[in-house]
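Researcher: Going back to the complex we discussed earlier. I've cleaned up the inputs and rechecked each line, so this should be the final set. Can you rerun the prediction on the complete assembly and write out the structure?
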Amino acid sequence: MDNPIAPLIPEQESSQQSPDTASPEAVLKITEVFYSLQGEGLTAGLPTAFVRLTGCPLRCSYCDTAYAFSGGKPLTVAQIIAQVSDFKTPHVTVTGGEPLAQPDCLQLLKVLCDQGFQVSLETSGERDIAPVDPRVIRVMDLKTPSSGESQRNRLENIMHLSSADQVKFVIGAREDYLWALKMIDEHSLDQRCHLLFSPVFGQIDPAEMAAWMLTDHVTARLQLQLHKSLWGDEPGR
Ligand code: SF4
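Model: Rerun complete. Updated structure for the full complex:
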C-alpha cells in the first residue's frame, strides 16, 4: 500500500469473532520473552518487546527459529504481561513459531491491546487470522515456492487484511520474486495492505533484488533484516 492515492479495499466482515472476554489465567507455551529492536516491517528500528510462542506446523527451508519448534515454558497471560511491562516500551510483537497454532494466543493479543500496548502479530498465514483482535497489526507471510510450504498459504486470509496490516514475501530466488508479483496482481494486494519483500539472508543478493523492484516499479517495500545485520542469528535478539 505504498501508493497513498491507491483506493483501499475495505476489510471484509469476518464470520469469526475475537474472544469477548480475555482470561489473564490462560496458559501459553513460550520459548522466550525478550527486548530488542524491531528488525522487520514498518516499525523496524523501534525498541520492542517480543513474545515468542513455541511450536510451528510448518518447516520452511530458510527457517531461522527452529529452536522454537518444541520445548518452551508454560506462562500465564498475566505472567507474560508482567514480563513485557518490565521492558517499558509500548511496542509488543507476538511471534513464533506460528503463534496462532496455540488457540490461547488470541487471549494474549486481546489482553495486550486492553493494556494499551501497540501490538503486532507475525504469522505464517497458515492459520485463520479472522478472530485476531482488530487492534492488532497483522504481519502475514505469503509463503513463496522456495520456502517449500507455499501449499500451506491460507488464501482466505487475504480478505481479512486491513490497510494497517502487512504482507511479507520472503524471497530466496528469482522464481519467488516473480511469484510474489503474480500474487500481488491476482489479489490486488497493493490496494489492500502494506507489502514487504524480504530477501533470504545470505541466499540472494539484496542489491540485485532492489534492481528488479526498480525495473518493475513494484509497489512493495524492500526490507533488510536489521537484527541480522546487527547480531546475526543470535537467539533472543
Ligand atoms: S512459519 Fe516461521 S517459524 Fe514456522 S517454519 Fe516457517 S519460518 Fe520457521
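Model: Worth noting: Residues 8 and 173 are 30 Å apart (CA to CA).
Researcher: Good, that matches what I expected from the previous run.
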